[in-house]
Design goal:
By secondary structure, the protein is mainly alpha-helical. 55% of the residues lie in helices and 4% in strands. Keywords: Membrane, Transmembrane, Transmembrane helix. Its main location: mitochondrion.
Length: 94
């Protein structure tokens, strides 16, 4: 697991995309508020909330998957050299 704590919005392009999706869904929900028909206000707000939250959670899931891919599969694995001091002469092997 990476211990790098320097995280900026430019390093995770999906964070602004998730925030923009959240804002777009809320704006669309507020725009359609007058033409909701027979739907109750509380049900309309719940649908808006679930859609906006789903957009943000989806973006976070993509970022987490992408970070895991970069950290565990995209990097070449360095060769580990292990030493065994219990052997005669402290011989090392890889």
């Amino acid at each position: 697991i990476s211990t790098d704590t320097d995280v900026s919005l430019s390093s995770c392009p999906f964070v602004p995309i998730g925030m923009a999706g959240f804002a777009a869904i809320v704006a669309y929900g507020l725009h359609t508020l007058k033409s909701r028909g027979n739907t109750k206000m509380s049900l309309h707000l719940i649908h808006m909330h679930v859609a906006a939250q789903g957009c943000v959670v989806g973006a976070m899931t993509v970022v987490t998957g992408y970070s895991m891919y970069q950290e565990f599969w995209a990097k070449p694995k360095p060769l580990k050299k292990r030493c065994c001091l219990g052997l005669a002469g402290g011989a090392c092997f890889s």
